[in-house]
């Protein structure tokens, strides 16, 4: 199949490279000339394990190429995927669809032969209808069908998620388009994930419902963690105890500093807006958003309380800044709120993250960055683990203790076992555990 991928961001680049790896002929388009120039040189603009190799292999096999020139890339394609950003519209939380609609408009004039226009961007219900209308208006003669095919991949595990998905959701109203989609995903049949064919609006809503449900699960266990601390229970054991019930499932029950990233925060807000617009409010999701926002600030409080109630003039070390491990993404990372609260309280914040420091620097000018975790700890009154990078799972604890001014560890990701750290003489504070 000949596939055009519009947008070479996270979803577009990973999907494009994976489709090429399936054996399809893929061209990735982006209006950002410097990004395309970098990709042509073999440089990957994001940090995603395995992506550089996947891209390089498929470029070498002539199955994957990059361009800024949209029209020739669209001509003759079997499917044109739209994978552009849908950020929160400033101020009101609605998804900003201007990039999606601009893509639709540009595609319209270039369509040649029957083409499936596939929306992979996360978009509110009804966006597919609007994309169809825009293309039809711009090019009344075009032979096309608009399909919704949301992406469920996680940053840091994107290639694995794309190639071994639990399911592929496809919102399609046209038999010819369904055939094309079946052909595109046929290489997955080895692992036989269900291809869930539904109506286009159902598919669009499924994506938001999935992200909102996962955000709810995390927020639920985070509140249970708070209660565990009060009553002397252990949240990890509670999570295991409930997660073994197949109706609940054990995943996304890891208590921590609150969810962040480029998806859950923006998608929960957009879903709330859709509910409000339709007069069908989503009160659970509204509460999840409020609880999660408050939690990030509460995590800074936890550090401040560990230091006796004030951090004024004190040096605090943070290990991990990205919203989760294996990514350099800082969008809505809990570290942002934590740093703001600590610095606001007068602390001197020192930090180390294996991948995200370039992204973090402009966002937290008050922080001193270090090239090594131990350098960040030197002379600090306490260290807080904010992101659970593997590199922090086996720190040289004797060295940590000797570098810290006071042996206080605030572990916001429950990386260590309380008994182990206490045995070594640390004051150890974690999440939802005694
Ligand atoms: C999320 C979804 O998991 C993907 O399925 C979806 O495709 C993607 O959004 C998207 O819509 O594009 P992602 O944002 O990459 O993926 O990251 P997650 O692994 O879901 O983590 C999100 C946040 O939740 C992180 O801050 C993470 O630390 C937190 N989290 C996750 C927890 O606090 N506890 C958990 O048990 C799991």
From TrEMBL:
<dbReference type="Pfam" id="PF03720">
    <property type="entry name" value="UDPG_MGDP_dh_C"/>
</dbReference>
<protein>
    <recommendedName>
        <fullName>UDP-glucose 6-dehydrogenase</fullName>
        <ecNumber>1.1.1.22</ecNumber>
    </recommendedName>
</protein>
<dbReference type="InterPro" id="IPR036291">
    <property type="entry name" value="NAD(P)-bd_dom_sf"/>
</dbReference>
<feature type="binding site">
    <location>
        <position position="35"/>
    </location>
    <ligand>
        <name>NAD(+)</name>
    </ligand>
</feature>
<feature type="binding site">
    <location>
        <position position="207"/>
    </location>
    <ligand>
        <name>substrate</name>
    </ligand>
</feature>
<dbReference type="InterPro" id="IPR036220">
    <property type="entry name" value="UDP-Glc/GDP-Man_DH_C_sf"/>
</dbReference>
<comment type="similarity">
    <text>Belongs to the UDP-glucose/GDP-mannose dehydrogenase family.</text>
</comment>
<dbReference type="InterPro" id="IPR017476">
    <property type="entry name" value="UDP-Glc/GDP-Man"/>
</dbReference>
<feature type="binding site">
    <location>
        <begin position="152"/>
        <end position="155"/>
    </location>
    <ligand>
        <name>substrate</name>
    </ligand>
</feature>
<keyword id="KW-0560">Oxidoreductase</keyword>
<dbReference type="InterPro" id="IPR014027">
    <property type="entry name" value="UDP-Glc/GDP-Man_DH_C"/>
</dbReference>
<dbReference type="InterPro" id="IPR001732">
    <property type="entry name" value="UDP-Glc/GDP-Man_DH_N"/>
</dbReference>
<feature type="binding site">
    <location>
        <position position="266"/>
    </location>
    <ligand>
        <name>NAD(+)</name>
    </ligand>
</feature>
<comment type="pathway">
    <text>Nucleotide-sugar biosynthesis; UDP-alpha-D-glucuronate biosynthesis; UDP-alpha-D-glucuronate from UDP-alpha-D-glucose: step 1/1.</text>
</comment>
<dbReference type="Pfam" id="PF03721">
    <property type="entry name" value="UDPG_MGDP_dh_N"/>
</dbReference>
<feature type="binding site">
    <location>
        <position position="331"/>
    </location>
    <ligand>
        <name>NAD(+)</name>
    </ligand>
</feature>
<feature type="binding site">
    <location>
        <position position="260"/>
    </location>
    <ligand>
        <name>substrate</name>
    </ligand>
</feature>
<feature type="binding site">
    <location>
        <position position="122"/>
    </location>
    <ligand>
        <name>NAD(+)</name>
    </ligand>
</feature>
<dbReference type="Pfam" id="PF00984">
    <property type="entry name" value="UDPG_MGDP_dh"/>
</dbReference>
<dbReference type="GO" id="GO:0000271">
    <property type="term" value="P:polysaccharide biosynthetic process"/>
</dbReference>
<keyword id="KW-0520">NAD</keyword>
<dbReference type="GO" id="GO:0051287">
    <property type="term" value="F:NAD binding"/>
</dbReference>
<dbReference type="InterPro" id="IPR008927">
    <property type="entry name" value="6-PGluconate_DH-like_C_sf"/>
</dbReference>
<feature type="binding site">
    <location>
        <position position="86"/>
    </location>
    <ligand>
        <name>NAD(+)</name>
    </ligand>
</feature>
<feature type="binding site">
    <location>
        <position position="30"/>
    </location>
    <ligand>
        <name>NAD(+)</name>
    </ligand>
</feature>
<feature type="binding site">
    <location>
        <position position="324"/>
    </location>
    <ligand>
        <name>substrate</name>
    </ligand>
</feature>
<dbReference type="InterPro" id="IPR014026">
    <property type="entry name" value="UDP-Glc/GDP-Man_DH_dimer"/>
</dbReference>
<feature type="active site" description="Nucleophile">
    <location>
        <position position="263"/>
    </location>
</feature>
<feature type="binding site">
    <location>
        <position position="155"/>
    </location>
    <ligand>
        <name>NAD(+)</name>
    </ligand>
</feature>
<feature type="binding site">
    <location>
        <begin position="252"/>
        <end position="256"/>
    </location>
    <ligand>
        <name>substrate</name>
    </ligand>
</feature>
<feature type="domain" description="UDP-glucose/GDP-mannose dehydrogenase C-terminal">
    <location>
        <begin position="317"/>
        <end position="418"/>
    </location>
</feature>
<dbReference type="InterPro" id="IPR028357">
    <property type="entry name" value="UDPglc_DH_bac"/>
</dbReference>
<dbReference type="GO" id="GO:0003979">
    <property type="term" value="F:UDP-glucose 6-dehydrogenase activity"/>
</dbReference>
């Amino acid at each position: 199949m000949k596939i055009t991928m519009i947008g070479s961001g996270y979803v577009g680049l990973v999907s494009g490279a994976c489709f090429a790896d399936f054996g399809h002929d893929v061209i990735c388009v982006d209006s950002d000339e410097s990004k395309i120039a970098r990709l042509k040189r073999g440089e990957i603009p994001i940090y995603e394990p395995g992506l550089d190799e996947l891209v390089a292999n498929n470029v070498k096999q002539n199955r994957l190429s990059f361009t800024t020139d949209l029209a020739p890339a669209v001509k003759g394609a079997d499917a044109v995927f739209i994978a552009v950003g849908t950020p929160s519209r400033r101020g009101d939380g609605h998804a900003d669809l201007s990039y999606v609609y601009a893509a639709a408009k540009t595609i319209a004039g270039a369509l040649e032969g029957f083409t499936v226009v596939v929306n992979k961007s996360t978009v509110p219900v009804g966006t597919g209808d609007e994309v169809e209308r825009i293309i039809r208006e711009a090019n009344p003669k075009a032979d096309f069908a608009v399909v919704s095919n949301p992406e469920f991949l996680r940053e840091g595990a994107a290639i694995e998620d794309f190639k071994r998905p639990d399911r592929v959701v496809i919102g399609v109203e046209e038999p010819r388009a369904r055939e094309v989609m079946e052909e595109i995903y046929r290489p997955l049949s080895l692992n036989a994930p269900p291809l869930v064919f539904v109506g286009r609006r159902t598919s669009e809503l499924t994506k938001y419902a999935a992200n909102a449900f996962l955000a709810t699960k995390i927020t639920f266990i985070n509140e249970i963690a708070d209660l565990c601390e009060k009553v002397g229970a252990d949240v990890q054991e509670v999570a295991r105890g409930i997660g073994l019930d197949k109706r609940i499932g054990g995943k996304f029950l890891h208590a921590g500093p609150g969810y962040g990233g480029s998806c859950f925060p923006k998608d929960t807000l957009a879903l709330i807006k859709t509910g409000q617009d339709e007069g069908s409010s989503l009160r659970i999701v509204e509460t999840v958003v409020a609880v999660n926002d408050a939690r990030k600030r509460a995590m800074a409080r936890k550090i401040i309380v560990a230091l006796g109630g004030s951090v004024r003039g004190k040096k605090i070390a943070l290990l991990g800044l990205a919203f989760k491990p294996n990514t350099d993404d800082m969008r809505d990372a809990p570290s942002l709120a934590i740093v703001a609260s600590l610095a606001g309280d007068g602390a001197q914040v020192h930090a180390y993250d294996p991948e995200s420091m370039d992204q973090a620097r402009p966002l937290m000018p008050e922080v001193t960055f270090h090239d090594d975790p131990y350098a960040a700890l030197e002379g600090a009154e306490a260290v807080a683990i904010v992101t659970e990078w593997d590199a922090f799972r086996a720190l040289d604890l004797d060295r940590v203790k000797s570098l810290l001014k006071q042996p206080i560890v605030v572990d916001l990701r429950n990386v260590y076992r309380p008994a182990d750290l206490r045995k070594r003489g640390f004051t150890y504070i974690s999440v939802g555990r005694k």
